[in-house]
Task: structure prediction
Amino acid sequence: MTGIATAFRVLAAAAAALLAVTVTAPVAQAKPEPKAPGEFVSLRSVDPTIIQEMRYPTAHDFMGEPVDGYRQSLCILTRPAAEALHRAQLRLLRQGYSLKVYDCYRPQRAVDHFVRWAKDLADQTMKGEFYPRVDKTRLFADGYIAEESGHSRGSTVDLTLVRLPALPTRPYRPGGKLAPCYAPRAERFPDNSVDMGTGFDCFDTLSHTDDPRVRGVQRANRQFLKKTLTEAGFVNLAEEWWHYTFQPELFPDTYFDFPVARGSVAGH
Result:
């Protein structure tokens, strides 16, 4: 019996020691997500009338999957950029139009995701819609993908115009038949915006704002958007009719990486 009692005492001591280690061992803490500086706001808090169709939290983008860093369908911008969009929106509403944003602030981790995808030459899932005439090996050389984006500085926005009253855009169904982003409006993916000649994120020279092949109503729509936003303080990227940057930028040299989420900005 003495031997059994001794064995029990040894086991009890070992269990107590293990429990002490378990209780006192430090618990690994998840690294807190970075927050946006106070100069960033949710666009909806500045102008709730601007239509938001954020593409990168969804699978309807050139990669065919949600992009890293987009936790919610939310447009975040620096306050001066958001207030400038509000001023442009007020003018457009009086003319029967609304702005619609596709992308706003973009975290660096999203840009990194773009880069990884561009280097994976085997992934051609969305080629039929977004880059039918561009070989994927050319995406970096032709400037469609880069390791940094002005969007990460917080004052750049991708957007279009919608004629009011706005009709709903049908949901994207992954795996459906793809049509080239430069196809006639009736053939490409339906969008409730005015006809700009190509869809958003179309990797093609037809997306150049002043491409001479884009004429008539399509050209007039591009110039209407450009004139409205230029007068509000934005500068267009000549290669993308949808891409505008408010100037002067608050953070011209800083590329942020906080997630696109309501918790990232105060007063969302």
About this structure: The helical segments are 2-24, 43-46, 79-93, 108-119, 127-130, 216-231.
